[in-house]
Design brief:
single chain; Rossmann fold; 5-stranded parallel β-sheet; 19% strand
Length: 260
């Protein structure tokens, strides 16, 4: 007799952008989870401005290119292809395995990336980014509009010269909360998965104050500890840190105790 699926009866909300949530839903459903797709973040293209075009046309002057997300890989490389080929001697680095995989999928064979944690501090801890390796170097960081400053500040403190190439913006989508609210009222929601503090803030705002007050019965699933320390994370019963990709999320969810 085969064992029951590991996530049987567990209701999980996926808040990432629609395409990414759709891709993740099937592996979770195959393990018995009840999946609710409720995008709390959307990615929009930014216009290719003259300053950004000049920067992308002169990428060969940089010593390292850092990508902060898979979205940065997709959007930045699309912009670069419109201007000039990628400089063959410009190495790339990624924050997290998903971003590293996106770079490998785009044809980069050597990607500097942390193997365990998926945040700026994990990347900064790598030998390739220690002071002796980056001092006096020029680094371009591909990111979304208005991202965090931690990476730039740390690299500049180590003597590097850092410039941003902002190639997309993160916005709050107009998702229909009705189906999720109905399932929640039936007791079918047990966990919420978010990938960023902004997504978490958007989610709390989108569900409204009444439901936000009821988050104390749910578990928050995050990719690293920093999100679990965010103010809105304190509304949940607890948070758990999931590993990379679908399998990491499944393992984290499998450890939850669902009361039915």
């Amino acid at each position: 007799m085969s064992a029951a699926p590991r996530l049987e009866g567990l209701g999980v909300v996926l808040t990432r952008p629609r395409a990414a949530a759709d891709a993740l839903a099937e592996p979770l459903r195959s393990e018995g989870a009840r999946v609710f797709i409720f995008p709390a973040l959307a990615i929009e293209d930014l216009k290719l401005t003259a300053p950004l075009e000049r920067l992308l046309a002169d990428l060969a002057r940089f010593d390292l290119a850092i990508f902060v997300s898979a979205n940065a890989v997709e959007k930045a490389l699309a912009m670069v292809r419109r201007i000039a080929p990628w400089p063959p001697r410009l190495p790339v680095a990624a924050i997290g395995e998903a971003t590293a995989q996106a770079l490998r999928g785009a044809g980069f064979t050597a990607v500097v990336s942390p193997a365990e944690r998926h945040d700026s501090d994990a990347l900064l801890a790598l030998p390739q980014l220690e002071r002796s390796r980056v001092e006096g170097k020029s680094i371009v960081v591909f990111r979304g509009e208005g991202g965090k400053e931690r990476l730039k500040e740390a690299l500049e403190a180590r003597g590097a010269q850092v410039e941003y190439a902002e190639c997309y913006r993160r916005v709050r989508p107009d998702s229909d909360a009705g189906p999720l609210m109905e399932a929640w009222a039936r007791g079918e929601v047990h966990a919420v998965s978010v990938l960023s503090t902004q997504t978490l803030e958007n989610f709390v705002s989108m569900i409204g104050p009444e439901k936000a007050a009821a988050l104390g019965a749910l578990t928050l699933v995050v990719p690293h500890e920093a999100i679990g320390a965010a103010r809105d994370a304190g509304r949940f019963a607890r948070f758990v840190v999931a590993g990379h990709g679908a399998q990491g999320l499944i393992e984290a969810l499998a450890g939850l105790r669902v009361l039915t």
